[in-house]
């Protein structure tokens, strides 16, 4: 099967550091190639892949200080995809809804994985208009606000089984990984660690738009000697960071569409304590890979219990549910249904 993967241009595929969507696109693309598919990846020129790379711009937009208009390269990307569209059996978009008018008019065999939150008011009118666009959710919770969208499947993210090494002997610290932003609630992670008297290591991206929030709400918390802010880390450092943690704290209070960090921790054998938002109850196996909680008091108690969970069972559950091979199989089934005009089969 000839498949096009259309990735965001903001980060490379895979990203050099933070970047959930581009990381998933990379895992999927490489697994499809390994399975024998003929894949073309439309992405930034600094991407690395075994697929055919059609580079849209020389560098990922976040790493190019000369780029000021982030939309212009994506418009060029859409035109490139349109020119080559007939070369593919299926075009798989990961750039949200930007291609909808184009896909409708070209009549493409295509689908879109929605990687972000869908509870935004503006999306209601958009999906009322584009009910014909086949879309895929990354959790059942993610799709709830958009009942009118044409969901043809639900595919949980997956990681290569050899990406992270299982670590049976962690050090004595808790971990937080992600972004420093109001919805990610790193302040809750600090509060949990303080109440347990434990070290907390924070690996987090800080965007310029969040700088004021950081200075106003977070910087003072990092003055605690038990709190270590290590900054933004890349793939090479993530395994050791998560694998040596006694527990990953995932304390967000927004409708998390999936939460890649949770399965990255599981792959290392590290249990997770997460607030019950969005996809969390679907991703965590409560009492096996961690605990879902509803309050700070419950999070403190659950973290103490989570550190006693069997780390090997965390790894085993990851292998069973969240491998890149399983993710690619799920998508291949959806591609096949589109090619044969059978519609989607819920995953």
TrEMBL record:
Keywords: Transferase. Residues 18-121 form the Glycosyltransferase subfamily 4-like N-terminal domain. Gene3D superfamilies: Glycogen Phosphorylase B. Pfam families: Glyco_transf_4, Glycos_transf_1. SUPFAM superfamilies: UDP-Glycosyltransferase/glycogen phosphorylase (SSF53756). Residues 168-318 form the Glycosyl transferase family domain. One of its GO terms (molecular function) is glycosyltransferase activity. Coiled coil: none annotated. PANTHER family: BLL5217 PROTEIN, GLYCOSYLTRANSFERASE. This is Glycosyltransferase involved in cell wall bisynthesis. It comes from Nannocystis exedens. The lineage of its organism: Bacteria, Pseudomonadati, Myxococcota, Polyangia, Nannocystales.
């Amino acid at each position: 099967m000839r498949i096009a993967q259309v990735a965001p241009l903001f980060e490379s595929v895979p990203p050099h550091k933070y970047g959930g969507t581009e990381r998933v696109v990379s895992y999927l693309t490489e697994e499809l190639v390994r399975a024998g598919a003929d894949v073309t990846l439309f992405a930034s020129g600094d991407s690395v892949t075994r697929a055919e790379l059609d580079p849209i711009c020389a560098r990922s937009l976040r790493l190019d200080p000369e780029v000021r208009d982030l939309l212009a390269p994506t418009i060029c990307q859409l035109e490139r995809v349109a020119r080559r569209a007939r070369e593919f059996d299926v075009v798989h978009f990961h750039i949200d809804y930007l291609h909808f008018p184009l896909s409708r008019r070209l009549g493409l065999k295509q689908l879109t994985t929605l990687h972000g939150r869908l509870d935004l008011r503006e999306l209601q009118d958009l999906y009322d208009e584009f009910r014909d666009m086949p879309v895929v959710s990354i959790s059942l919770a993610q799709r709830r606000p958009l009942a009118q969208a044409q969901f043809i499947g639900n595919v949980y993210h997956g990681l290569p089984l050899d990406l992270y090494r299982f670590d049976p002997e962690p050090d004595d610290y808790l971990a937080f990984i992600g972004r420093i932003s109001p919805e990610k609630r790193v302040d809750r992670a600090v509060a949990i660690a303080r109440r347990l008297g434990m070290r907390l290591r924070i690996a987090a991206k800080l965007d310029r738009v969040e700088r004021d929030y950081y200075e106003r709400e977070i910087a003072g918390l990092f003055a605690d000697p038990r709190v270590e802010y290590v900054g933004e880390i890349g793939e090479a450092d993530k395994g050791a960071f998560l694998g040596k943690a006694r527990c990953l704290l995932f304390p967000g209070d927004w409708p998390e569409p999936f939460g890649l960090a949770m399965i990255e921790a599981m792959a290392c054998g590290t249990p997770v304590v997460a607030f019950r938002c969005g996809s969390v109850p679907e991703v965590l196996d409560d009492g096996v890979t961690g605990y879902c909680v509803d309050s700070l008091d419950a999070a403190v108690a659950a973290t103490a219990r989570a550190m006693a969970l069997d780390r090997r069972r965390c790894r085993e559950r990851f292998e069973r549910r969240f491998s890149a091979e399983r993710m690619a199989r799920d998508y291949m089934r959806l591609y096949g249904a589109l090619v044969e005009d059978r519609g989607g089969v819920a995953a």
